[in-house]
Design goal:
- The protein is built from 13 helices and five strands.
- It is an alpha/beta fold and 316 residues long.
- It folds into two domains: 2-211, 3-Layer(aba) Sandwich (Rossmann fold); 217-315, Helicase, Ruva Protein, domain 3.
- It has a five-stranded parallel sheet.
- Helix 8 links the parallel strand 3 (142-147) and strand 4 (186-192).
- Helix 2 packs across helix 7, helix 10 (217-227) packs across helix 11 and helix 10 (217-227) crosses helix 12.
- It is elongated and about 65 Å long.
- It comes from Callorhinus ursinus (Northern fur seal).
């Protein structure tokens, strides 16, 4: 039943991305189910704030050689890289950047879940690994995106299961095969919070690396402006002050903090107004004090999470 659903999903996605008259094997169909529907990929560079330098480098090294292929076809040096690594703390926009890159470059985006390759019978993993690359080549230009790539291609050890070790070796061999045809426009893009856990052989295959770090002051201010751009915010709110108070916050932390601040206005309205007189226009704008309260809540949450990590480390 699951295989039938995967095939149906794959066929639907293939039509939506405009692929016709391309025959796929059973294993390629299974991987095709992980194609991201371009209609659902709304992210653009304008949705990403505070990472201008990274975006500029990505445009130059990845996107331009794909979009202007004819300008670079006589140079092996100027071909898009076959491996790109986005690394840094969680919640800083690595997945957003990968999707925006694919959309900007006009690439088909395969959001590969490692469990697709590892939760199979013996021998199936190698066939599926081969299908990842054969499908990507048929659909090129394409990006094979692996989130938390360290969980899939971490340092190899003697404790690895034989089937897993064989699958990893084949995955890397197929990856190397992309380099034999310099005109091939398939990129493996990975994201990780723990680059130190990646196999050194994987690192060699990902020479183009971008550190997506915690946002600095000006970056936090830019992110806050983007998050609150279309929200009901009091005109006296000082976002620079908010940015100064949120040192150490990731982009996702800032978004959650702003959501909490907006919810304070909703709760206040609900608690102070009878149900009969509810009028959505009466919800007041987000004020500086709401953001301050939300910041304190987020800081307590982050402190509690940190203490929990320390406790586990001590117990181990």
């Amino acid at each position: 039943m699951e295989d039938v659903e995967s095939q149906t999903q794959a066929e639907k996605l293939m039509k939506q991305i405009g692929v016709k008259n391309v025959k796929l094997s059973e294993y390629e169909m299974s991987i095709a189910a992980h194609l991201v529907d371009p209609l659902n990929m709304h992210v653009t560079w304008s949705d990403i704030a505070g990472l201008d330098d990274v975006i500029t480098d990505l445009k130059d090294t990845v996107i331009l050689p794909i979009k202007k292929k004819h300008l670079f076809e006589n140079s092996r040096l100027l071909q898009p890289p076959k491996g790109v690594l986005l690394y840094g703390p969680p919640g800083c926009g690595k997945t957003l950047i990968a999707k925006a890159t694919a959309k900007e470059a006009g690439c088909r985006f395969i959001n590969l879940q490692p469990s697709t390759l590892t939760d199979k019978w013996y021998g199936e993993s190698q066939k599926l690994a081969a299908a990842v690359f054969s499908l990507a080549i048929k659909l090129q230009p394409s990006i094979i995106f692996i989130d938390e790539i360290d969980s899939f291609l971490r340092n190899r050890s003697s404790s690895d299961h034989e089937a897993t070790a064989m699958m990893k070796a084949q995955f890397m061999s197929l990856w190397d095969g992309l380099d034999t045809d310099h005109s091939c426009q398939v990129i493996v893009m990975g994201a990780t919070n723990r680059p130190q856990d990646l196999d050194s052989a994987i690192m060699r295959r990902m020479p183009t690396r971008f550190h997506i770090n915690q946002p600095a002051l000006k970056q936090r201010e830019a992110i806050l402006k983007l998050i609150l751009k279309n929200e009901n915010v009091d005109r006296h709110v000082d976002l620079l002050e908010v940015a100064q108070e949120t040192d150490g916050f990731s982009g996702s932390d800032l978004k959650e903090m702003c959501r909490d601040a907006a919810l304070l206005c909703v709760r206040e309205y609900v608690n102070s107004t009878s149900e009969e007189s509810h009028d959505e226009d009466e919800i007041r704008p987000v004020q500086q004090q709401d953001l301050h309260r939300a910041i304190e809540k987020m800081k307590k949450s982050k402190d509690a999470a940190f203490q929990n990590v320390l406790t586990h480390v001590c117990l181990d």
